[in-house]
Design goal:
With 146 residues, this protein is of the alpha+beta class. The chain has helices at 2-15, 21-45, 48-52, 73-82; strands at residues 62-64, 69-71, 89-92, 96-101, 104-115, 118-131, 134-144.
């Protein structure tokens, strides 16, 4: 009986020990990838609230482009809700994802956007963070190619 109890305690301690970093990394990469896919799907559906639900509701949210840098979810959400503009077509390439550490993933993807007969191409990058409400975009940026 003593041996069985000791074995159970040892197995429980091992199971509750530090998480396997490779397993944690893979889980984080999968979670960020699913958040990326869901965010792009919200754009395709032109669903403002689903789109905004992917972003960190915080004054720390960073939105960067080639000519501007802003912070804060409130202004970002107000601008998105005030605009009826969505791309006619968005082609988003498969993202390259890099695990930065537990609960933080950086990703970049190539995009092509067609809107009103104009075509723009470039790269978009995002930093995803794992929150109690799922994976959220904490930093987003775009760079158009010439």
């Amino acid at each position: 009986m003593r041996y069985t109890l000791a074995a159970i305690c040892a197995l429980t301690a091992a199971a509750c020990g530090r998480p396997n970093p490779e397993m944690l990394k893979e889980q984080d990469l999968e979670g960020a990838y699913e958040a990326f896919r869901s965010n792009i799907a919200a754009i395709h559906r032109r669903d403002t609230e689903a789109y905004l639900a992917h972003y960190l509701e915080s004054p720390e949210l960073v939105v960067a482009s080639a000519d501007s840098l802003s912070r804060g979810f409130v202004l970002f959400a107000e601008a998105r809700r005030a605009s009826a503009d969505w791309p006619d077509t968005l082609m988003a390439g498969r993202p390259v994802l890099v695990w930065m550490g537990p609960g933080v993933v950086w990703g970049a993807y190539e995009y092509t956007v067609v809107q009103g007969g104009d075509t723009a191409r470039g790269w978009s990058d995002r930093v995803f963070v794992k929150t109690g409400g799922g994976w959220k975009i904490a930093v987003t940026g775009t760079r158009q190619r010439g």
